[in-house]
């Protein structure tokens, strides 16, 4: 048997090629080749690698190397970055979770046939009749039954149980209640008012140990459709997410209960105090945040599960902005459900950068004039939250953490700080801005890009501005599609940084210049000048050099002379006071929504935009 990695992640265009023979880019850095005028090559990397990535292994070689076929992955495709050691969820139940573990209006009740199939699968799994990937995990059981319970207790009639679901549950519950563990029975009928038969267990369930008892108490409120206080949520999170004690033993918190808690809070639509609890709960996990000695720092919080359709520009935008002193901190993960799309960590790893930087190493790169930006993995910044990736895949839908992880300050700055966050679904614009204000940053933007469903925008009061992007010299174009191709995203981004004009170049320029303007950065008061500044950073070759410097210098060992972790980061009170300025921007015909606030007054004379600008056509800007 032969295992072949295709397509080849060999990036070839006018002046840049990326080549690698390494099927696992975390171990051997990829080399970057630049064509000289005489046709020769200039190499940036540890070893010359002139052969494109193509791994062809026969079964004997695979066995000799001690590899499983599932461990062989194509680094050019985002879906292959999933950790093969994570158990895969049962697909039948997972599809049901996608329908029933969502909001009061989005839930789609199961038909009788679907409900029978799901409950039969659960019954056979609990009885031990299903093996390996066919097994229904404890986390899936917790999420599914939590969704069913909240629907029965708190959802409107249209999204409560269907007649088919009632019929299926009536048939299967007498059998399920005999084999399900007590914690799942509690989740399915916490007050003994839903199922009828065998309903006494739920009201008497208290859990095992103090951590689980606290979790059970919180779940009783959540499963009834209720909400929790700030301190209560933080207590549950700190108890439940510390899955391992110092001696290596588990805290004993049930995965079923934890998954029910996470999906239940999302289904009930978290309150501001609940989101604040998630956002701030682990700020002190590794001690005080390092303080970067820079005049300006922008925290980019892109959706952690990546892009599956369109070009992801933030890494390249950060390289551009660093050329004129606007430092950036990007953060995320290598792979995250549910989308499992292209992420900054995948791109950086594919290009040979070190993606295991500590917070202090990232701080050094931000402060270094040769670089000016950094990427930090959640793995290094918040290990407890990183450990939940497998659980998050099992619960299918995004938990509250998917919102709050985008509004983090893993490193603070002596100068001004801003946060830019992307989002997929309507309804989280104001909560994200609320969290940014709670962080005390000087300015913030919340951007809806093309990876989400297209909408018409939100009408705000007192401000409206019509801008035609073609007035700034941009032609109407469609956003480049990359789908799940890491290599294609890199190819497009590097070509743009090399000065190749086109849709990708335009989007990087727009996103750099417009973010600078909307955040109130120095020198960006006039949007035309902000856009020209971004173009100059690219056309001069400075932005490409910054990115290449990052790849090279991230692999060095940084030993700072001293760690500056003292002092307070700036808050709006340190700057000229003014009213917050929320913004709403959308792009026609492919909308990109931008919401934001700034803690100072400034007239808008600009072309606002969001990440992955879809087409450079006319914009309507509304705000107050």
TrEMBL record:
Source organism superkingdom: Eukaryota
Gene3D superfamilies for the chain: Nucleoside phosphorylase/phosphoribosyltransferase catalytic domain
Record-given protein name: Anthranilate phosphoribosyltransferase
Native species: Hibiscus trionum
Biased composition range(s): Polar residues: 7-27
Region Disordered, annotated ranges: 1-27
InterPro entries: Nuc_phospho_transferase (IPR035902)
Keyword list, A-Z: Glycosyltransferase, Transferase
Key word Glycosyltransferase present: yes
Gene Ontology CC, one term: cytosol
Molecular function terms, GO-annotated: glycosyltransferase activity; GMP synthase activity
SUPFAM superfamilies membership: Nucleoside phosphorylase/phosphoribosyltransferase catalytic domain
């Amino acid at each position: 048997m032969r295992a072949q990695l295709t397509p080849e992640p060999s990036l070839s265009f006018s002046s840049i090629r990326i080549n690698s023979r390494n099927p696992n880019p975390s171990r051997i850095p990829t080399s970057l080749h630049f064509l000289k005028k005489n046709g020769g090559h200039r190499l940036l990397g540890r070893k010359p690698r002139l052969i494109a990535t193509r791994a062809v292994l026969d079964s004997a070689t695979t066995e000799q190397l001690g590899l499983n076929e599932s461990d062989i992955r194509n680094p050019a495709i985002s879906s292959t970055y999933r950790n093969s050691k994570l158990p895969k969820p049962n697909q039948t139940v997972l599809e049901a979770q996608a329908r029933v573990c969502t909001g009061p209006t989005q839930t789609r009740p199961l038909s009788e046939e679907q409900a029978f199939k799901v409950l039969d699968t659960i019954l056979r799994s609990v009885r031990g009749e299903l093996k390996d990937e066919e097994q229904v995990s404890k986390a899936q059981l917790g999420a599914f039954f939590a969704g069913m319970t909240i629907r029965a207790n708190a959802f409107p009639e249209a999204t409560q149980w269907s007649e088919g679901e009632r019929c299926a549950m009536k048939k299967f519950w007498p059998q399920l209640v005999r084999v399900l563990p007590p914690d799942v029975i509690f989740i399915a009928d916490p007050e003994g008012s839903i199922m009828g038969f065998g309903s006494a267990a739920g009201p008497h369930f208290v859990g095992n140990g103090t951590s689980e008892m606290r979790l059970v108490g919180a779940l009783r409120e959540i499963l009834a459709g209720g909400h929790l206080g700030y301190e209560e949520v933080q207590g549950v999170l700190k108890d439940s997410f510390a899955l391992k004690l110092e001696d290596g033993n588990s805290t004993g918190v049930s995965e079923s209960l934890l998954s029910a808690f996470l999906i239940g809070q999302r289904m009930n639509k978290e309150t501001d105090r609940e989101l604040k609890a998630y956002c701030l709960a682990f700020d002190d996990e590794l001690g005080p945040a390092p303080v970067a000695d820079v005049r300006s720092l922008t925290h980019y919080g892109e959706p952690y599960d990546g892009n599956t359709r369109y070009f992801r520009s933030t890494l390249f935008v950060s390289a551009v902005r660093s050329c004129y002193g606007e430092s950036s901190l990007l953060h995320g993960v290598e792979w995250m459900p549910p989308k499992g799309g292209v992420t900054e960590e995948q791109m950086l790893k594919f290009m040979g950068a070190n993606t295991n930087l500590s917070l202090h190493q990232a701080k050094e790169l931000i402060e270094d004039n040769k670089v000016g930006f950094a990427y930090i993995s959640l793995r290094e910044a918040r290990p407890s939250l990183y450990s939940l990736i497998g659980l998050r895949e099992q619960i299918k839908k995004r938990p509250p953490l998917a919102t709050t992880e985008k509004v983090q300050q893993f490193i603070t700055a002596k100068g001004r700080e801003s946060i830019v966050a992307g989002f997929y679904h309507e309804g989280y614009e104001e909560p994200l801005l609320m969290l940014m204000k709670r962080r005390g940053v000087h300015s913030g933007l919340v951007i809806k890009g093309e990876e989400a469903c297209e909408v018409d925008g939100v009408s705000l009061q007192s401000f409206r501005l019509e801008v035609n992007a073609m007035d700034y010299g941009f032609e109407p174009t469609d956003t480049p599609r990359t789908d799940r191709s890491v290599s294609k995203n890199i190819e497009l981004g590097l070509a743009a940084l090399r000065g190749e004009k086109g849709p990708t170049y335009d989007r990087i320029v727009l996103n750099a210049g417009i973010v600078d303007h909307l955040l109130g950065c120095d020198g960006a008061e006039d949007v035309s000048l902000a856009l020209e500044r971004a173009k100059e950073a690219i056309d001069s070759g400075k932005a490409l050099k910054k990115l290449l410097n990052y790849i090279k210098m991230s692999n060095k060992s940084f030993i700072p002379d001293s760690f500056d972790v003292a002092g307070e980061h700036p808050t709006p009170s340190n700057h000229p006071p003014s009213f917050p300025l929320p913004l709403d921007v959308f792009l026609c015909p492919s909308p990109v929504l931008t919401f934001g606030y700034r803690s100072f007054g400034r007239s808008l004379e600009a072309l606002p935009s969001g990440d992955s600008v879809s087409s450079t056509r006319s914009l309507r800007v509304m705000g107050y």
